């Protein structure tokens, strides 16, 4: 094999580089475990209809985006899909098939898609490359990434200023799984990734279209690590310069170049031809898409029937308004809370409460953003420990843990050391598994907000702008009660790498209590209130704002900073606390069956839920956002009192107070996109778990402290949801269906948003979600530019 000099690249054009960029854009980012957010793994394919995106993924990765035939057969036979759902799906999908032919399709077995083979895969089958039968040919690339990014656990640390490509080139000199001839070939590549890319593109000699298909397929072979490299540009831009997806792309192209050299001339021609052709259209997939559509229409039919009830006005003005996060887990508690007391009303809003902050905890933990992953924190807050002794103790604890970690993973450590430290941690395991939660203590003082850079406190104008944004999200004039409670949410579980995914699916995996406290402090600030009044968004002078945290594991709500509540509101606060207790009991009882908690009394049930969070062997402390299915943008009166089964994101929106559609556009470009990302992350983890799921929790090992998890002996990074977050061992706990968005707004206002927001229009028009609107007769669905009644 002879390398081409960097300057000699007559067949490499700008179109080839654009093809590589398009392939990279098809890979969605992923976030670190402690900042985990749910991601739409097909965000880069949103410009394609979902069925066409599936055709590409079928040929390039061997996966499909619908469920196996047996899933739809069971749904049909159980009545989950009804005949009217199937008939409506046939019409919506413009299918030439009838009900009889579609039901007969359920008797035929699944036909797996034919995945196109890379040159490296073909070469690994036929030569002495050291690849054993059944082993992943791209395991060496995954091992490279694991070694490069795993700075906590690797035995010898990588040079941090070395690029991913440069490090690969260095490591191959010592890789005895590669033949000497291949190692010499790698030595001929330029040391700079940009120059090497030119050489490789010239050698592969594909058209731009073929190159795009190949590059996308290669990235999908190491999808977890490709997603991590892509994510660096979103959440750690500085690291992306050394180890972004472009660096990984060059490594993958180099492997393909090595594999191509090992093929005989006829195989090379077949390899080149397969990437030059379009993926074959698979007619049998249209059948299953019709069934998937019917499955989703069945849910919409039931949701439409539930929402058909006319709104019931409140019989008395609210004395307490509790603003919850739109998280689907809040729906149950909100319903029971309003049922517990007629003087309580609830609202739905994004659970970071419009506070785009990074929070610095007291102790050794690193600062973490508490803002939706698609946003960048503008400010920071700090937890000021009331006692310096507590601060020092937390540092000492973390120092001891780090000492053990470094000793365990040092090159000179032995099995004896590992076993001994394991015994030392055994007492903690037993103690934690039987522990009871510590009694509530005073909330640590909160300092800030400060500017992220520079550290100066916010000017009054900035504080007013933050407070105004929150009030507008709640709805102009919506706050009228003497007590407004901002309820963030959090979760609690030990020994759980995916803990952040249970805490929140959007806000960097962090609880909303800090955001709620900050927002409450701003809204109670007299100077801020005067500024709000000057801008026409005044709060009632008698309203006090309080923060709280909803633990989604136990459904207990902790009120924060209650010592600042005016004495005149003390009786009201007491009644609210009692209502919270009754609502928590009802919510726990409703959730218990799905969690397998058989306790009959509330004390026993609460204790069982606490134990789940502290049990190191419990893979399912709670179900998180599993079974999410819809987003409702409407006044609370539309859904109040209705049992939405904990499946609906609820965000406040009053069309009467938004004549220009400005608030609707903000909701459809922020909360709606976030809800869609969460929904499609869960959907993908069910329909294509081999590519987009995190696998079995029982086999997980954490990479790099926070990077992610691998499963068993495979070095492939697993992304998405673990199996145990979706399946109870017998049946799926998450129904795989695309998000149904229901908007209470005029048709023209909704269509105007679609006309202005291309990304939103792509999700709707290409079938990545369903868009519906509420009218006087029920619900109607938007499809191909028309509104059709459900």
Structural class: alpha/beta
N-end to C-end Cα span: 63 Å
Low-confidence sequence ranges:
409-413, 437-441
Mean pLDDT: 89
Radius of gyration: 28 Å
- Tell me how many strands there are: 18
Binned strand content: 5-15%
**Number of H/I helices:** 31
- State the share of residues found in helices, binned by percent: 40-55%
Number of separate structural domains: 5
Mind describing the biggest β-sheet? 6 strands, mixed
What strand line-up does the widest sheet have?
Answer: 11-10-15-16-17-18
Task: Based on Cα principal axes, name the global outline.
Answer: globular
GO cellular component, one term: plasma membrane
Membrane topology: Peripheral membrane protein
Binding site for Zn(2+): 325, 327, 489, 504
Function: Part of an energy-coupled inorganic carbon pump.
Walk me through the structure.
By secondary structure, the chain is of the alpha/beta class. It is built from 31 helices and 18 strands. Strand 16 and strand 17 (778-783) form a beta hairpin. Helix 20 (460-474) packs across helix 23 (526-534). The protein starts with 13 loop residues before the first helix and ends with a strand.
Key descriptive features of the protein:
31 helices, 5 domains, alpha/beta, six-stranded mixed beta sheet, 790 residues, single chain, five-stranded mixed beta sheet, 18 strands
Give the helix/strand layout.
Layout: H1 14-25, H2 50-61, H3 69-78, H4 83-92, H5 99-105, H6 119-126, H7 139-149, H8 164-172, H9 180-188, H10 193-204, H11 208-221, H12 223-235, H13 237-243, H14 245-261, H15 265-276, H16 283-307, E1 320-325, H17 329-340, E2 344-349, E3 357-360, E4 368-370, E5 379-383, H18 388-408, H19 415-434, E6 446-451, H20 460-474, E7 483-490, H21 499-503, H22 513-524, H23 526-534, E8 544-551, E9 556-560, H24 570-595, H25 602-614, E10 630-634, H26 636-639, E11 648-652, H27 662-669, H28 671-687, H29 689-692, E12 700-703, E13 708-711, E14 717-718, E15 740-743, H30 747-756, H31 758-765, E16 770-775, E17 778-783, E18 786-789
Parallel strand pairs: 1-2, 1-7, 3-5, 7-8, 10-11, 10-15, 15-16
Antiparallel strand pairs: 3-4, 5-6, 8-9, 12-13, 13-14, 16-17, 17-18
């Amino acid at each position: 094999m002879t390398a081409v000099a960097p300057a000699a690249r007559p067949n490499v054009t700008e179109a080839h580089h654009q093809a590589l960029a398009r392939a990279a854009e098809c890979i969605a980012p992923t976030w670190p475990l402690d900042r985990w957010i749910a991601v739409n793994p097909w965000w880069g394919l949103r410009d394609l209809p979902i069925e066409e995106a599936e055709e590409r993924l079928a040929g390039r990765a061997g996966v499909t985006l619908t469920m196996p035939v047996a899933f739809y057969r069971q749904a049909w036979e159980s009545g989950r899909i009804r005949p009217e759902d199937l008939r409506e799906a046939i019409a919506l999908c413009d299918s030439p098939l009838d009900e009889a032919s579609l039901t007969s399709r359920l008797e035929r077995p699944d036909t797996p898609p034919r995945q196109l083979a890379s040159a490296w895969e073909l070469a690994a089958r036929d030569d002495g490359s050291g690849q054993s039968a059944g082993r992943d040919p791209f395991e060496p690339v995954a091992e490279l990434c694991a070694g490069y990014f795993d700075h906590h656990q690797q035995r010898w640390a990588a040079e941090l200023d070395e690029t991913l490509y440069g490090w690969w080139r260095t490591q191959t000199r010592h890789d005895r799984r590669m033949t000497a001839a291949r190692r010499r070939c790698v030595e001929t590549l330029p040391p700079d990734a940009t120059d090497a890319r030119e050489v490789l593109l010239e050698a592969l000699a594909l058209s731009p279209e073929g190159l795009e298909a190949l590059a996308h397929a290669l990235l999908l072979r190491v999808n977890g690590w490709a997603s991590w490299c892509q994510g660096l540009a979103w959440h750690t831009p500085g690291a992306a310069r050394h180890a972004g997806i472009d660096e990984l792309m060059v490594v993958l192209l180099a492997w393909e170049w090595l594999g191509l050299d090992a093929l005989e001339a006829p195989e090379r021609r077949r390899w080149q031809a397969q990437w030059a052709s379009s993926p074959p259209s698979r007619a049998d997939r249209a059948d299953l898409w019709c069934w998937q559509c019917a499955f989703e229409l069945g849910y919409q039919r039931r949701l439409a029937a539930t929402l058909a009830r006319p709104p019931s006005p409140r019989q008395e003005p609210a004395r307490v308004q509790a603003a919850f996060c739109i998280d689907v887990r809040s729906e149950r508690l909100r319903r029971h809370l309003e049922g517990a007391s007629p003087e309580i009303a609830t609202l739905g809003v994004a659970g970071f409460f419009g506070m785009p902050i990074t929070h610095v905890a007291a102790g050794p933990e690193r600062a973490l953003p508490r803002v939706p992953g698609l946003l960048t924190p503008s400010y920071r807050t700090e937890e000021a420990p009331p006692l310096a002794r507590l601060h020092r103790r937390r540092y000492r604890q973390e120092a001891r843990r780090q000492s053990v970690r470094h000793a365990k993973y040092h090159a000179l450590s032995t099995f004896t050391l590992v076993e001994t430290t394991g015994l030392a941690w055994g007492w903690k395991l037993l103690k934690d598994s039987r522990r009871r939660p510590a009694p509530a203590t005073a909330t640590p003082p909160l300092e800030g907000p400060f500017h992220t850079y520079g550290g100066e406190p916010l000017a009054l104008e900035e504080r007013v702008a933050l407070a105004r944004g929150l009030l507008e999200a709640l709805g102009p004039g919506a706050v009228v009660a003497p007590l407004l409670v901002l309820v963030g949410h959090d979760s609690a579980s030990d020994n759980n790498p995916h803990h952040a995914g249970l805490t929140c699916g959007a806000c960097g995996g962090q609880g909303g209590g800090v955001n709620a406290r900050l927002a409450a402090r701003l809204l109670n600030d007299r100077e801020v209130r005067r500024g709000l009044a000057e801008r026409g968004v005044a709060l009632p002078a008698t309203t006090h704002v309080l923060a709280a945290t909803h633990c989604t594991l136990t459904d207990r709500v902790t009120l924060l900073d209650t010592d600042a509540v005016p004495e005149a509101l003390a009786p009201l606060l007491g009644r609210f606390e009692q209502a919270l207790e009754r609502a928590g009991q009802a919510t726990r009882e409703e959730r218990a069956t799905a969690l397998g908690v058989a306790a009959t009394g509330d004390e026993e049930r609460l204790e069982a839920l606490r134990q789940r969070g502290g049990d190191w062997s419990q893979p399912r402390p709670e179900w998180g956002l599993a079974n999410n299915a819809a987003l409702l943008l409407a006044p609370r009166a539309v859904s109040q009192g209705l049992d939405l089964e904990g499946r609906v994101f609820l965000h406040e929106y009053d069309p009467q107070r938004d004549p220009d559609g400005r608030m609707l556009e903000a909701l459809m470009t922020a909360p709606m996109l976030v809800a869609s990302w969460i929904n499609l992350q869960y959907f993908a983890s069910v329909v294509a778990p081999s590519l987009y799921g995190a696998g079995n929790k029982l086999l997980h090992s954490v990479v790099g402290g926070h990077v992610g998890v691998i499963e068993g002996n495979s070095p492939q990074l697993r992304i998405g949801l673990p199996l145990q977050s979706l399946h109870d061992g017998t049946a799926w706990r998450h129904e795989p269906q695309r998000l149904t968005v229901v908007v209470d707004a005029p048709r023209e206002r909704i269509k105007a948003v679609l006309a202005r927001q291309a990304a939103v229009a792509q999700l709707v028009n290409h079938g990545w979600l369903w868009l519906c609107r509420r009218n006087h007769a029920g619900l109607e669905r938007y499809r191909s530019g028309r509104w059709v009644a459900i």
